[in-house]
Design a protein that fits this description.
four-stranded antiparallel β-sheet; globular; disordered N terminus; disordered C terminus
């Protein structure tokens, strides 16, 4: 991999680390870089486009394509507000608008609210299995149902596979069964210090179970079981109901884009 001088902070961290490793070991840049992620396209900015979350605003993203990330590299990205689908890594870069706020639950300290405990009781007969990433036709059928009936969008199998089954980092999937029927699936990345929810889909005929809320609790629980500190929920947006629910899981920390630090609820900023 060639040396790339970038203005975006996180990939620079990776290349700087490679350089230091090369200096210590007497290796070339190219040899050291092979020990870290493989960058397919250097980071760049997308064009401005209408925001999918705030209808009165426009948005743009920093993004790059990469694979072979380690859990430690993934954690560095998560700690600076990056997200991913497949080999596509991105974070918002919308000028003065900082309303997409990265949020993470402290997995080992998570305490459900009264309403969340009711969801747990309602879902008490649902079996959850955490497995290696494995594509099956029935999972795509759930995705197609979820996309069409929740968002009015048709789905293409190739796009689905590229987003969720192109493995670029450590990952797994959670599977939810009721009476031996697969009713929901979560796609989860694994960093050195946490699990990150990439996306969650369910059969919309089971919507009454509040499966989205249930998945957060079970996956945060699984992060704690694995000895990981965090469960990353992506972006919290107070003004958007589909994103604001993420603030209902406590205790959590949010990311300050300006200071590039995390802060707990009611706390001053803390280091990553």
């Amino acid at each position: 991999m060639e040396i790339i001088h970038l203005s975006l902070p996180v990939p620079c961290l990776f290349f700087t680390r490679c350089a230091r490793s090369a200096e210590r070991n007497g290796n070339s840049w190219r040899g050291a870089a092979s020990e870290t992620m493989t960058l397919l396209q250097e980071p760049q900015l997308s064009p401005w486009a209408p925001c999918a979350y705030l209808p009165d605003r426009n948005c743009r993203f920093e993004y790059f394509f990469a694979y072979d990330l380690t859990g430690a590299e993934l954690e560095e990205l998560f700690c600076r507000g990056w997200r991913k689908f497949g080999e596509y890594y991105f974070r918002p870069n919308c000028g003065d608008c900082r309303r997409c706020v990265p949020i993470r639950v402290l997995a080992g300290e998570f305490t459900p609210t009264r309403s969340q405990r009711r969801v747990m009781r309602r879902c008490s007969e649902i079996e959850v299995r955490f497995n290696e990433l494995e594509y099956r036709d029935e999972i795509f059928e759930i995705y197609r149902d979820h996309s069409l009936n929740r968002f009015g969008k048709e789905s293409e199998e190739n796009d689905f596979f590229a987003a969720f089954y192109t493995r670029s980092c450590p990952t797994l999937q959670s599977e939810y069964f009721l009476d031996n029927e697969l009713i929901a699936v979560g796609f989860i990345d694994i960093s050195s210090r946490g699990l990150s929810s990439v996306y969650y889909i369910y059969r919309t005929s089971f919507e009454k179970y509040r499966l989205g809320t249930y998945s957060v609790m079970r996956e945060a629980e699984h992060a704690a079981y694995l000895g990981l500190k965090y469960y990353y929920l992506g972006y919290y947006i107070e003004e958007n109901p589909r994103m604001a629910y993420k603030g209902h899981f406590h205790p959590h920390e949010t990311f300050d884009w300006t200071r590039e630090t995390w802060a707990g609820e009611g706390d001053k900023s803390i280091e990553k």
